[in-house]
Amino acid sequence: NKSGDHSVxxxxxxxxxxxxxxxxxxxxxxxxxxxxxxxxxxxxxxxxGRGNGTWxxxxxxxxxxxxxxxxxxxxxxxxxxxxxxxxxxxxLMRNQIALWLGDEIGMxxxxxxxxxDVFMNDEYLGMYMLAEKCEIAPGRIEIDKExxxxxxxxxxxxxxxxxxxxxxxxxx
Length: 172
Known about the structure:
Structural class: mainly beta
Number of strands: 10
Radius of gyration: 17 Å
Shape: globular
Distance between the termini: 31 Å
Number of helices: 3
């Protein structure tokens, strides 16, 4: 949806398919279904927009949450994933190269990703990067919530006029 508040959720089902040769070469299945044949589920995926700096661009990024954990395309078993639009990168490679480089040099917590073509309601939205959601969880960012910190650099130009991060008391 194109709501002004990208925290509005839409509900439904998700189907992912890929060519058999691609699936076989990567050890994936050729089809993932969020409902996995369970007709009793009214909906099996929640999807919402994501990204403060890119929200409002013609190509939107999304976050989705499945009712059950699934290992989508070898990204690890989880229920939350993101679809990054990479709207500001015409090559669609900057984030992919940065994540590959981080992995190659052994940076901890480097997200895994896969390039995918996205269709929503039978409309082609373009090529996206399907990636792990950055979150503190097993198999994702494994830190002690009581002793460690996860910081996010936020571009808060309108509110603060400079780069930074917000503490729990909303101070820069």
